[in-house]
Amino acid sequence: MKRELVIVIDFGGQYNQLVARRVRECNVYCEIYSYKTDIEKIKEMNPKGIILTGGPNSCYEDGAPTYTKELFELGIPVLGLCYGAQLMQHILGGKVEKAPVREYGKTETKFDTNSKLFEGLSDESIVWMSHFDYISQVAPGFKSVAKTNDCPVAAAENEDKKLYAIQFHPEVLHTVNGKEILANYVYNVCGCAGDWKMDSFVENSIQAIREKVGDGKVLCALSGGVDSSVAAVLLAKAIGKQLTCVFVDHGLLRKNEGDEVEAVFGPDGEYDLNFIRVNAQERYYEKLKGVTEPEAKRKIIGEEFIRVFEEEAKKIGAVDYLVQGTIYPDVVESGLGGESAVIKSHHNVGGLPDFVDFKEIIEPLRDLFKDEVRKAGLELGIPEYLVFRQPFPGPGLGIRIIGEVTGEKVRIVQDADKIYRDEVAEALKAHKDATGKEADWKPDQYFAALTNMRSVGVMGDERTYDYAIALRAVKTIDFMTAESSQIPYEVLNKVMNRIINEVQGVNRVMYDLTSKPPGTIEME
Ligand code: XMP
Asked: What SS3 class is residue 77?
């Protein structure tokens, strides 16, 4: 399948994935590569455009990430952003030095709208700046096409050679015309037509899966989460009865979740997935008995999942292919990342080792960002409430119960969490109905957790000695950093009242204000 490609060369910028996502929002397929990628590989890919990202270094310092000058001589349009812009100027003979005034944040900028990058846009608008260095002199053949009060070269171009350098960050939403600037780059400069669309992705994938699988057997671990659901339905559309989906209920799901997943994907639902539900609750509680250390709990939950899955796979017999729900950020993070410390050993049900006798792994979503997975899900007719679910960790409530997990604690956290989610959803809907807008406190993820703390309280005339529930809600873009969401006090208060009244075993409710860092989103 031939499709247009724009590549992003990553110089360690924090927005590398955002740049690629914005390009894809223009319906142009885009992939990220490290600045260490060989030029020959880039030539082979023959992209329609190349974008150089920002990065934390100064391009004129020894050892700073760089690229061969040949990149700018391929005749392929190159757009440098921030560090990428400075590097382009530095390599081609311009001057980059420490700026007299550091620019950070929203900055009023004047544009030359004769530039193909800024065509059709207003000649003055706000951009997002974040730089210490600046381009004090453009390279030969270039001219400045945007400026701010402190920055004479907020953008520069060499139109003949199709080289563009932008000091600010068009990929960040604070840059008012950022999307339009990137669209101008991919359409006006690179000449892309925009052939990356989710309906054709779905069609092409179905075709490709059929060709690959032939009449082989395929096994898929279905968790009910967005990625595995989309992968399973895609496979089912492609190969029908050759697919078997195994759903392991580990007893650490949200309230009613097992039944909900079964209702949609099971034999009475509208998909034909050869759905097998394994009720492994007791087995999990047994394994987790007495275990309190978070990493040990995570490992047991992951390992037990594999054991259950393995048993099911054996019953089915020779399986040719295994489906994994890998998505593009997983590929980028494992392929480009540095050597960062392992904070938590994440596992999701896709992360299976090669224990079953299968020929190959199928990763139908490995090219997609999360928002694209969602679009593909809608394209496949999966209900919206499943497609727009908030993330739920593979180890489930096991890491939302601090300390030892028991069936009783699972019941408590499930009930409290259900009340919390219902009330927040209702308040969000009421806000939207009243104002026509989403509430600005709308969390990206929210849940209840069971602290292992018990404390004294009074209910009726009786002394109680019960658990404290912690409510967590965060606003985040990438789940790498997060801030607690400012849920209105009345909403929290109502949730507290209901939990205390309705959930036996709880006599205290707390709201977790911690941002990430220093906290993580989950408690363990
Ligand atoms: P933390 O707690 O690391 O969570 O701030 C960041 C995001 O990742 C989710 N999370 C997981 N997802 N398997 C998963 O599939 C895991 O083991 C896991 N641990 C955390 C968490 O819910 C949040 O969205």
From this structure: coil
Q: How many Cβ atoms from other residues are within 10 Å of residue 28's Cβ?
A: 25
| Residue ranges of the chain whose pLDDT lies below 70 | 1, 335-357
Neighbours of 435 (CB within 10 A): 9
Q: What is the pLDDT of residues 359-368, one digit of tens each?
A: 788 999 999 9
Strands of the sheet with 78-81, listed across from one edge: 29-34, 5-10, 49-52, 78-81, 163-166, 155-158, 143-147, 95-111, 124-137
The string over 327-346, giving b where at least 16 C-beta atoms fall within 10 Å of a residue's C-beta and e elsewhere, is: bbbbbbeeebeeeeeeeeee
Alpha-carbon span 100 to 109, nearest angstrom: 18
Token output for 105: 């944040």
Q: How far is the CA of 248 from the centre of ligand 1 (A)?
A: 19
Q: What is the pLDDT of residue 343?
A: 57
Spacing, Cα 505 to ligand 1 middle (Å): 27
Supply the DSSP symbol for 240: G
- Distance separating alpha carbons of residues 320 and 157, to the nearest angstrom: 53
Under DSSP, the state recorded for 516 is B
Q: Helix (H, G, I), strand (E, B), or coil: what is residue 18?
A: helix
Q: How far apart are CA 26 and CA 193, in angstroms?
A: 10
Q: How many whole angstroms from 50 Cα to the centroid of ligand 1?
A: 32
Q: Is 297 in the pocket of ligand 1 (CB under 6 A)?
A: no
- Residue whose entry in the numeric block shows the structure tokens 């990137």: 182
Token pair listed for 494: 């109502």
Alpha helical stretches, state H, 337-478: 370-379, 384-387, 407-435
Q: Would the CB of 464 count as within 6 Å of ligand 1?
A: no
Query: Counting atoms of ligand 1 from 1, which one is nearest the CA of 392?
Result: 22
Whole-model pTM: value is 0.84
pLDDT, position 498 = 98
Distance CA 127, CA 293 (A): 47
